[in-house]
Design a protein that fits this description.
alpha+beta; 5 helices; about 170 residues; about 25% strand
Length: about 170
């Protein structure tokens, strides 16, 4: 399973505060599960926001998730709890919804999933892509969910990445 996001580290908190990204939405992150780890940890994805209303909208879209919450880094109790969650002896694996090297991720998607993308296009579109034409996928994260955007001429499709993985 493809996992493109950065592992969250305690040292990133100061940077988030400096950038005024005070609101962190947490949710279950299935892609972060390490199936080979000796001790199972729950994986959580954190998405940062500078605006509480946007964070709240994200939260509403995942409200049934057991790890759905907003961490407010301006609140001492929230900050302390988040630092505890990031500690080595924590029961959580925390990932940050950012991609450190976008070009590397694009290359991996192009190489590893090109056949899946081709199968998806053949099965789910009427696109007739010529030998001299190329469809380049773009990745997009919306409320912690990874999407692939496929563009061909004037048409565009936004597909959950998990659909491409299964194609």
């Amino acid at each position: 399973m493809f996992q493109p996001f950065e592992k969250m580290k305690a040292q990133y908190i100061a940077r988030l505060i400096r950038l005024k990204m005070f609101y962190l939405v947490t949710q279950t992150y299935i892609r972060g599960i390490d199936h080979f780890a000796e001790e199972a940890r729950d994986s959580i994805l954190v998405t940062d926001y500078d605006d509480y209303k946007t964070a709240e909208t994200h939260l509403q879209s995942i409200k049934t998730d057991k790890y759905a919450s907003i961490i407010d880094l301006t609140k001492t109790s929230h900050l302390a709890k988040f630092q505890e969650m990031l500690s080595d002896d924590s029961k959580y694996n925390i990932f940050w919804a950012i991609v450190k090297d976008l070009e590397l991720v694009k290359k991996r998607v192009d190489l590893k999933y090109k056949d899946n993308i081709r199968r998806y296009i053949t099965k789910n579109t009427t696109w007739k892509i010529g030998g001299d034409e190329t469809v380049r996928p773009q990745l997009l994260v919306i409320f912690g969910e990874l999407f692939v955007i496929l563009k061909y001429r004037s048409q565009e499709r936004r597909i959950k990445f998990e659909v491409i993985e299964k194609a």
